[in-house]
Amino acid sequence: MRLRVEFTTEPFDLDEAPAHAVVAREVVEAAELDAVDVGPFGNTAEGGADRVLTAVDALLRRSLEAGATRISLQVNVVGEGAEGEGAEGEGAEGEGGR
Fold it and tell me: In whole angstroms, what is the distance from residue 63 CA to residue 83 CA?
């Protein structure tokens, strides 16, 4: 299964990226996810379910520790109906045992 996570951290600071936003960006960039897109008003990343869920756990914990007062996120299943095809099968190897 592939998932897409979309998230924002607050409080916002348009003049300089707050520590919690930098930490959140570092977490998703280090998580070996596909299609990572970070921006000032929202971030998205996509990948295998285990990798995305592990990244979300780290994102929540580390961003809160770095000063986030609110984290909004949405997780969607992507590629339904493509089971066993191309990108769906990639990244899913070894994830079924958990």
Answer: 33
What is this structure's pTM?
0.75
Alpha carbons within 13 A on the beta-carbon side of 73:
20
Listed range (3-7, 54-58, 64-68, 93-97) with the worst mean pLDDT: 93-97
Q: State the virtual CA torsion across 60, 66, 70, 76 in degrees, nearest 10.
A: -30
Q: How far apart are CA 8 and CA 40, in angstroms?
A: 9
Q: Beta partners for 75? A: 5
Secondary structure element (H or E) that encloses residue 94, with its range: none
Residues 10, 71 contacting (CB under 8 angstroms): yes
- Among candidate residues 68, 72, 74, 56, the one with its CA nearest the CA of residue 12: 68
pLDDT of residue 73: 94
Q: Would you call 90 helix, strand, or coil by DSSP?
A: coil
